[in-house]
Amino acid sequence: MTLAQHTTASTATTGHRDRMLGLLRRRPPRTSLEAPLYTDPDLFSLDMQGIFATQWFFATTEAEIPEPGDYVTVDIGTLSLIIVRDDDGQVNALHNVCRHRGARVMTDRRGTTARLTCAYHSWTYATDGTLLHASSPGETFDRTCFSLRTAHVRSVCGLVFVCTAAEPPTDIDDLAATVTPYLAGFDIASAKVATRIDLMEEGNWKLTMENNRECYHCGGHPELACSLFATWGLTADTVPPELAADWDRSLLADAALRERCTTHGLPWDIVEHLTDRDAGFRISREALDKAGESFSVTGERLSRKLMGDLPDFRLGRTSLHVQPNAWFHGLSDHVITFAAYPVSADRTLVRTTWLVAEDAVAGEDYDVDELTHVWRHTNSQDADFVQLAQQGVSSPAYVPGPYMRSEDQVEAFIGWYTDHMIRHLDHLDHLDPGERS
Fold first, then answer.
1. N or C: more exposed end of the chain, with fewer CB within 10 A?
2. pTM of the model
3. Half-sphere exposure of 112 toward its Cβ, with a 13 Å CA cutoff?
4. CATH for 57-156, among 2.102.10.10, 3.20.20.140, 3.90.180.10, 3.40.50.2300?
5. Boundaries of each Rieske domain copy (predicted)?
6. Which DSSP symbol is given to 339?
7. Coil/strand/helix, residue 193
């Protein structure tokens, strides 16, 4: 890059930064974002730098890479990572960029391999990223200087989080300490993957997350409404008359669940730190409707095997939300993980994984179609909602609208996002021009 080109790029970056700061700082509380923050490719790039290059995000589960050589790839914007278990059983996160001339090393979404080999010039790496082979007769160079670049990895009860920052936020330790009593009994690390589904949503990643953080739209989820109380997210003074009976039923179910949890020594309180830390999260154990066992039409269990060492099928759902890109449902008979991976300003990959007990047998203990029925339909409906939202915010008629009281967690997500982006963009202002581009 010439000096003139470098100066132009730096000026453009500064312009995008200043524009984005203005949009973020003038957002009124409890109001959706202005259109460019959902639609502009340049501001999307700043999202990737300010959120996904600085914060911990959910990548996969240990259950998906149970043996040495097992790997999955995770793509976020232009970033690609290989999450792989090495020969010592350690989980590593490696940048999916060959150290020769930058080619993508692994192109499949998942697999098993003894070595990571770039198809371009056959540079070959161990599963810990060490360069093993670089065939070029007569060439001598220090191969120890050309290992695959690494990212930080943290497993929390089998949930694998990754951070690409040089110094990752440390409050993930607080998250781990708080959620472990809720999650440990599921034994996610040793679970069996029943199936995975990738769904491309035609919308900005923040619209995907906003949609997940509220149930104001849950009237559009008839399958989910069979087991999830329609009053989720409401309070006593916000329940509409038509949901009064559901509200009363949910209170009775929650009281029964808390008594059962107390008997088994299991936590059930809501713990919420969605806005006051980097690794923002919310966890709780909440009752389900009808039989109260699982996400099914009847509320009954979908697998005959209990997860981990859980003592009872009727333990509702353990619900975990983690900023910026994940949510989880732990049922006594299975666990579902959801990850939102931003692809572009108007596209987001949602990856859903269903986990069952390690010894559960497909066709005998569970049926995959029945296991996935509710959330296959719900995810598809959500994708339609997100696409409608993206189409709307892309219109010149769009004006940011207010969040309802039942959308408190949407406000919490957008507040977290806004605060972190302002902090990041303010930091850019103190860098030399060359460091901004």
1. N
2. 0.94
3. 6
4. 2.102.10.10
5. 56-162
6. E
7. strand
